[in-house]
Amino acid sequence: MVSGGIFLSYRRDDTAGESGRLAEHLTRRFGQDRVFLDIDTIAPGTDFTSELDRALVGTTVVLVVIGRRWLTAEDPHGRRRLDLPDDFVRREIVTALQRGVRLIPVLVQNATMPAAADLPDVLRPLAGRQAIAIQHEEFGADTQRLADTIAPLLEPGGRRPGFNRAVVAAVAIVVLVAVIVAGWRWQQSTAATAATARAADEAKAARQARQREVDDLVRVADAQRERGQLSDALATLDRAASLDADMSRVNVLEEDVAMQWVRDLTVESGQRFTDAMKTPLAVLDRAAPFASGPRQGDLLAHLGWATYLRWRDGERTLDPPATYRKALAVDPANPYANAMLGHWIVSHEDRRNDMEEARRFFRTAADAGRATDVVRGLQLSALRNVGSVNSRLETIRVIDEMRRRDERLRPRDVTDAWSIYYFALSDSGAPTSAALLAVLPPSEHLLTLRWAFEEYARSERSRLLQMRYYTARLRAETGNVMAAREALQGLRADLESSPGSLRDAVDRALADLPPPPRQQRPRQ
Known about the structure:
single chain, 524 residues, mainly alpha, Rossmann fold, Leucine-rich Repeat Variant, 3 domains, five-stranded parallel sheet, 22 helices, 64% helix
C-alpha cells in the first residue's frame, strides 16, 4: 500500500460484510492501492502478520469498524479477544496509537461506542476518538460522508516553497518528462481502464457468490429450526457468519432460534435449566442491548423466561417479572412478555388468586395478533399445571375464547378439555355440571363442544357416545327438553347391551328431566 493509505481494522465474525462494502466504496473514491482490507489485499502465500505490520507503516488513517460483537467477541476458550496481547484487532489499534496514526471508530449494526472502562488499558484512548456511524439503510450516503472526512487527511495542502532556479529547473524537468510520457500514458489508459473494470466485475461476482452461499445456509438453518434441530441451526448460522457477506438475515434468524430454544426448553430428571440454555442465552445477551422496539421486547421477554427457568432451578432470589416488565416498558403490547407475566401469576403460589389480572395480561398478548400459539400454549399449560377446580373451569373459558377468535387448538389441549367435560357432566369429579355451566351459557358450550371435539370424538366409538351424552345434557340446559329426551332415549337404546358409568349417567339424566306434558284424550 502506498503512503497516505486507509487501513480497515475489523473482526471477521463481527463486521466482515460491512467492512467489505466499506472497502469497496473507499476503493472507488481513493484507489485500490490506498485501501487495505486483509482478505483482498494480502496475496496468497504471504505472511499475514508481517503484511499487516507493513500495511500499518504506510497508513494515514485507521478505520476501526465496530459492530455489536466487537467488544465481547471470545476465543474458543471463552476469553475475550481484546484482552489477549496477540489478538489482531488489538495489535492493529495499539500500533496505530503508538505511531500517532489518525484513528476513526466506525459504528455499524447500530452499535454504540465502547466506554473506556470496558476496554483494556492499552486501548482506552480509542474511547476518546470521535466516531462516525454508518446505518444499513443509508450505507452509501454515510460512507460518502466518511470519505469526505478522510480526504483532507490523505492529500493535505502543503506550503508553497520559495521561487528559485531549482524550482524552475524542477518544473522544466517535470514538463519535459510529462511530454515524453504523455503518449505512453494515453496508450496505457485504455488497458488500465479495462483491467480495473474486469477487477471490479470479478470482485462483484465473488461477493454475489458469497451472498448466495449465505442465503442458502440461512434457508437450511430455518428448516432445521422448524424441525426443532435448534443446536444444528445455530451451527449452520455460525458457518454463514464466517463468510464476507450481508449478515442481517443471519443475525435475525440466530435470535429467533435462540428464543425458540429458551422458550421450548425441557430437561430430564437431574438436569438443570441453567446448564441447558447457555448457548441460546449467550445469543440473547449479545443481541438484546442493541435491538429496539418490538424486537427488543421479544428478546427481553425471553431473557425473563430464562430467569424464570433459573428460578425453577432454585435461584429464588431472582425476579422474573422484573425482566418481563422491562420488555413491556419497551413494547407494552408484546405478546411474549404479557403471556409470560400471566403465566407467572397463574403458576406462582402467592399469586394464583389473581386470575382476573392474569386474564388481562393473556388478553393483551392474544390481541397483539402474533405468536398466538405461544400465548395460548403458555396460558393453558399454566392452568394445567395448577390443576385446581378454578383453573380447569378457566381452561373451558379460554377454549371458548379461542373458538370465537378462530384460533388453533393443539391435541394436548383437546384431551385436557375433554376430561374436564367428562368429569363435570358425569358428576364424578370436582368441577360439577353446575360449576361448568356457570362459566358459559349452555348455547356457547354446545358451540365449543362441536368446535373442539367433533373430529376427536368421531375417531372412537366410546367418545362419540359420550359426545352425544354431553350434547343432550346441554340441550336440556338450554330449555330444549324434548330434543334432549329424544337424544338420551336414543343413546340409552344404543347402550342397552353396554352397562357401565355412561349408561348410568344417561339413566340419571333421563330421570332428572321434567315429565312430558300429558296428552288429553279426545271426547267420545
